[in-house]
Amino acid sequence: MATVSVAIPYASKWYFEAALRGMRAAAAEDGHELDVWVEAPGPAARAAVATLIEQHLADSACIGAIAVHFRLHGDQVGRVLRSGKPVVLVGGRPDELPVVRLDDVEVARRAVQHLIDLGHRDIAHLAGAVTDPDDITIRADRVRGYSEAMRDAGLEMQASVRASAFDVGEATSAALRLLSADERPTAVFAAVDEMALGVLDAARTLGLAVPRDLSVIGIDDHDDSAAAGLTTMRQSPEAVGRAAVARLLGRTDVDDQVMDVELVVRTSTAPPPGPVAARPQRGLKRGLLDRLVRRR
């Protein structure tokens, strides 16, 4: 039986589990199976992934490889393509290899625009931490989408970016600090749903009613999001996984496949309380924003 080598940074996180389900189902349709290996994210991860893909592709049973949230570039691309077998990336920006991805700038822009359309002007962004080793370009692109939406609405001076790991617990702590401030926002856009769930936890701890006192939106439609009433930009990791295998097997020939995302409105977003014009303005934390949007 032929195998598809899959490099992944985590074995048990929601997104990656779902993406693998999609890959397995798509590969099985042609009688193939996955050879999945976990490479812990970190500074040396990309080089390690390139080396292991090269080794796996040398095996006659391996028909191609997929790297999930690992961006290969330069001589790494040449090395993994030396075998003549296909290599597909999941996540990030189009480079020298076929990629299946979200348009993270546009998805973030749409999420923020939903809040703006409701009447919110004081919108904070809970973004991924600069030090997150598993982030390809998600953090920077979603900050960019947020900042562009705020700028286009004339709200630059009210923009505020706070950093957190892509984790409910860390996001709860960051949101407690954000929402305890005297000039707290009326809405929070979180980079992923796990972080948005942390914002909801923080709001409950502080006695804030959602959405009366605070609106919250995330990205993903995590398995826990519907029960929490979280408004989100829904994507399908399973569909991402299927699309990556389809490209690898030659069922499609699109080298930059941007997946669809749908706004799902639930009970965590509503118009802001009180007159919008009465809300105080805050200066943009430019240093942090610049660090977040810098492309890796």
Q: Can you write the helix and strand succession as a string?
A: EHEHEHEEHEHEHEHEEHEEH
Mean pLDDT: 91
Number of strands: 12
Top-tier CATH class of the largest domain: Alpha Beta
Name given to the CATH homologous superfamily of the largest domain: Response regulator
Distance between the termini: 38 Å
InterPro entries: LacI/GalR-like_sensor, Peripla_BP_I
Organism: Amnibacterium endophyticum
Protein name: LacI family DNA-binding transcriptional regulator
Domain Transcriptional regulator LacI/GalR-like sensor: 112-269
Nutshell version of this structure?
The chain is α/β, with parallel strands linked by helices.
Structural topology:
Layout: E1 3-8, H1 14-28, E2 33-38, H2 45-57, E3 62-68, H3 75-81, E4 87-90, E5 99-101, H4 104-118, E6 123-128, H5 138-152, E7 160-164, H6 168-179, E8 187-190, H7 193-205, E9 215-220, E10 231-234, H8 237-248, E11 256-258, E12 262-264, H9 286-293
Parallel strand pairs: 1-2, 1-3, 3-4, 4-5, 5-11, 6-7, 6-8, 8-9, 9-10
Antiparallel strand pairs: 10-12
Helix pairs in contact: 1-8, 2-3, 4-5, 6-7
